[in-house]
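A reminder before we start the practical. When you read a complex entry, don't treat the lines as separate problems. The point of joint prediction is that each chain is placed relative to the others, so the output describes one connected object in space. Small molecules and nucleic acid strands, if listed, are placed in the same frame. In the example below there are two entries. Take a minute to note the order of the lines before looking further.
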Amino acid sequence: MTTRKFSINRQTLSRLPGYLILNFWVVFTAVLIGWILIASLSTTREIFTNTLLESGVHFSNYVQALITHNVGRYFMNSLFYTVTAGVGIIVIAAPCAYVLARFPFPGNRLIQNMFVGSLGVPQIMIILPLFYLSSLLRLTNSRGLLVLLYVCLNVPFTVFFLMSFFSTLSTSFEEAAAMDGCSPVRTFWTIMFPLAQPGIITVGIFNFIVLWNEFFIALIFANTSDLRPLAVGLYTMVQSMRYIGDWAGMFSAVVIVFVPTFLLYIFLSEKIIAGVTGGAIKE
Amino acid sequence: MKRNRTMMITFLTPALFSFGLVFIYPILRTLAMSFFYVRTVTDGWGKWEFVALANYQKLFASSMFIQSLKNILNIWLWGGLVVFAVALIFSILLTSGFKGKSFYRAAIYLPNVVSAVAMATMWIQYAFNSKYGLFHTLFSFLGMERLASFQWTSPDNQFLAMTLAYCFGMVGYYVLIFMAGIEKIPVDYYEAATLEGANLLKKFIHITLPLLRGVLRSSVVMWSVTSIGFFIWSMMFSPLDPDVGTITPMVYMYNLVFGRNLTPTDPQLLNAGAGAAVGVLLTGLTVIIFAMVNLLIRDRKLQY
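Here is the predicted structure of the whole assembly.
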């Protein structure tokens, strides 16, 4: 009994530094985010004098941010871009992943390699011609352009991710459907697509977070106050802070930017983590 | 079979068309553009002026561009060493029967789901602030006056501050990847080693590290790709003018082509061709790193 107790103590002791560092890390993150939350409810004066919440809770900062600083509009823009592009990506990527995963044909491997290779292409290698093309077609500064770009740019990763889900499904589904005279296209949408749902939901959530936080493409293609998504909106707001001087409003805007992905993460962290590791580690 | 072929064509076409539109066509055009003088991005073929390698020569003669390369090299090397070391330590701790593993993993990964603009704002406007900031308050409380008065966002220190804040968030991503890799290694190996009397360090060097090769290799590639595309944090740390201390090639190119804030150090006016050359150089760098990593970290097919 005594030896056992000793061994437990020794193990706990050897892990103590680890516990300390990990806890310090987590507490630091919590303080960082917690302080922003509290600051977003204080006045700018209180923030600068380190007397947060002294005059009570000011929800008016959020009203100020949403209306005066245009954050409400940016939020709606972000929501529109993220949801429409998110759906568009799946509609284009899922059928392609299905064909690549299940039908051997000459060039199949080449297409797969091209898609994977494109994940390493720096964005600045492709941005200039895209800007040229969109100005040629008079598409600059429109919501549709940004959605189109988001869809096209994220198809390769999504195809790559979904392929493993389609390759594990049994071929007996298609054989049975073909026997019943169901067309291959219908077989896909009514039978195979629903079967790959776990993968589609995972990659859908993952894409949502990526698109919600996207900055570079939006900075170049949607940089007018009507079209800006949240990330670019917050950037321009921070940039002009020295003229506006509404720090409380700015911290409210920070909270508005991170709350949607934060909530999604709280509820779905297991799925999101599975998505990240599934995309990075392939056999 | 014939019906399958029609299905395959209709299913592949949209994806392949979009791929050609946003990857193949732009890559080829950027490559061509880098050999021409192009005043603005929107100029068509007709207005291009062939200059051979002049764009590249101009880039390497620009101290600002050289500095931007040095900056991403420093982020890649020093940031990479720190991030990989910390992430390895964390993931080994968390996979060794740690209580609350999922919670810690989720908490450490959190900065990765939050917009980088929001994260950077938190760091710059709060953590690093010299009046009410977290570090200032903490170090004053501990009586460390010199650390408390450290000017994080001054031009001399902002590269350090930027790298620190960036790496803090990135650790979580690699913890996730490493943990998934470690959890695939069969427990028997560790048990056998423990029976033979191997300590934690020995187990790490002789079991974990060799079996984590494939994971480490793709992580190095991933880290290189994100370092090369370093943009948001740099824009946030020097929001008004690109600054020598924080400039990266992508920020340099952004200013060169979409030039809202051209700096006096680069009197050269708008030149989209040089911007394209930056893109070509960075793509070349990516390819070289990829080849080198594949050469240095061989991936033998492992069977557990």
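Discuss with your neighbour: The first helix of chain A runs from residue 2 to 39. What might explain this?
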